[in-house]
Specification:
With about 200 residues, the chain is of the alpha/beta class. The protein is about 40% helix and about 20% strand. Strand 6 (about 115-120), helix 7 and strand 7 (about 150-155) form a beta-alpha-beta unit. It is globular.
Length: about 200
Amino acid sequence: MRLARVYPVVDSAHWVGRLLPLGVRLVQLRIKDQSESQLRTQIRAARELCAGASAQLIVNDHWCLALEQGCDFVHLGQEDLDAADLPALRRAGVRVGISTHAEHELERALALDPDYVALGPIYPTLLKVMPWQPQGLARLRSWKHRIGTLPLVAIGGLTLERLPGVFAAGADVAAVVTDIVCAPRPEERTQAWLRAAEAV
């Protein structure tokens, strides 16, 4: 399976709608602290926007709603794996990406035959307090050696300046959060990311 080399991580369907016209073809919707009805509305709107743009939507955490709304991709953290009905997702053709931060988490993820593995945070991140130290490029390189052709997604503290090193270390995909959504001109920053990904 081939994924776009860069994907933004955003917290609303509004953001999805802003970024898709720029050429984004893969985007993750990560929403916290909303009611189920609000989440359903956001996921449905984002799915429809992506379908209209021939783009892929990854729904973070909310696998039940992703399944209900006919989404084709979910991203699960280690805690989400405890409750997720992976056989139901597979039967529906929903692809699954899994977050990892340590060796035992990678082993668990690989045993579940994911469609991609994510490693993070690669660098210090401003998004949230992390219980893990930054993973660094050496860990990224090690992960890629372990998983082979399975797509490896790098996330956490990524910037345009760091992108060449991240790809050189073995990442197939860069997931970008604050460097896009917190930029003074997010659309321009997104276009810069897309150009950079094509150039590396």
